[in-house]
Amino acid sequence: MNFHALRKVHMNSLGSQAKSWDSMKSGPRKENLCSRQWLTTQFRCSARRYQTGYTINRHYEFTNYNHGISSLFILSIRFYQKNIIPILFLTAALIAPAFLIGFAGWGEPESVVFFLSVHLLEGAITLGVIGTAFGSYFPSLGILRALRSPLILGAVHVAILQYLLFITGVMGLTIPFPFSILVIALWLGGLLLTSMAQQVFIVEGVRGIRAMARSIQLARTNLSRVFVVVVISTLMQFFVFAILFTLFMPDLNLNIDAEDNDEIPLLLSEILSDPGIHTAIRWAQYLASLLFYPFASLVMTFLYFDLAQRQQVLNMDHLAKFSNQFFGTPLAGTAEPASQAEEEVVEPSEVEILNPDSSEEVKDK
Fold this sequence. Notes:
Oligomer: single chain
Strand content: under 5%
Largest sheet: none
Number of strands: 0
Shape: globular
């Protein structure tokens, strides 16, 4: 129930109190009653309580709710649409170093920096979700300021471990068959289980190998859900990349003889070494990272919060303090203290006391 519905219910309650006040004023029972000013004051106090409760529930919608697989993607789409400008700004700021390195012609450092930037984006999006949950907007500038603190060292540490895991799997492709199949299976399983390591570091403060181990432990609690979400997200990523690649793909003059199969490997090597193909791959890669990777990071972030909430390990007071530390969001949104509830019952400065005897005299006249 939102604030407006609660306001309507409370107005009806106040109306019944006012009718009771009128009936008691003319009834046989004579008591000293407050005027309608008291009822107005009580309504304002109660409305403020209802509005505060509604705000708290809205804050917890992102981080404290059990989702299905479809609702994870729906919530990610809505969050992405509502905050698309600051999210794109944050993403562009994080992948800009890799783009500049590639523009300078340093191909190998570019791939390393790009991989690390994408995983840093996962941690940055997690910070953004926390800041939005306890604030009123996506704090892209606050996230960039937070990454200037020692927080970035832990995020980079986790990203480096994820990169080493990725490289290990790529090197496993060179192992003779059938050992390569086993290595690839373990590699893909490792990537799946450690896909929430950045979220674990940001929310729980667990660094390095422990963040990877914690992600594995969390994913194993509902492995089928994690598998389905990661596979759908990966397929969507490939689909977006394929569309963008076709937009930048240059025209190729291929003279292939259908009966000559020996020329096909040579043609494939020529295609992959074509500068136009490299340019198309680079533009498609960066545009996909700019447009889709934030959405994929949102999906994994909400998946983490969903699994953590099911285990009941989320400390909302800690998250509120964490958000206040980096983004200056208020701390009053976590819980309503008893003193605040007492302060909300505000007595009016001036109370009109009705004299029942005078009311009876007016009635007799």
